[in-house]
Task: structure prediction
Amino acid sequence: MYKVRMTRTGRPELRLQLQHGVEDLKAAYRASTDVVEKRRVQAIWLLAAGKSRAAVREVTAYAPSSLNLIIRRYNQEGLAGLKDKRHDNPGFAPLLNEAERKALYTALGAPPEEGGVWSGKKVAAWMGRHTDKPVHVQRGCEYLERSVSVCSTPGRSTSKPI
Result:
């Protein structure tokens, strides 16, 4: 009768389903230029070579749950599942598109409508009016720093160069 090996938590142990030979995994490990991917491939390669999970965790410094996640991704997607997918994430779109950014920089060339000097708060208010979205003062300050390399905030007498 086939016995399923159980973990300490009472769950069945996740088994590695090899899709590549040990030499192929070794070659993939050596060819990888991304450190995250390289470490993940190393973990699979060592498991495929017969090393225990404890030994693999010691070499790679992975927690048991992280190692299980890597095994699960390898079982489902092969070597492609071990890639660092953060590189493919472009992140959020900028708050202002190119036309809005140009309009802001043009507006910054003149005194603000409210009078005084431009501050992060005034830039954020201008951005909010032109995008119809609430804009935090910090974002206004960042855009101001990008454009004129000085962020004026109440109570602050020094300018901050970029």
Notes: Helices lie at 22-31, 35-48, 53-60, 64-77, 98-108, 120-131, 137-148. DSSP finds seven helices and no strands in the chain.
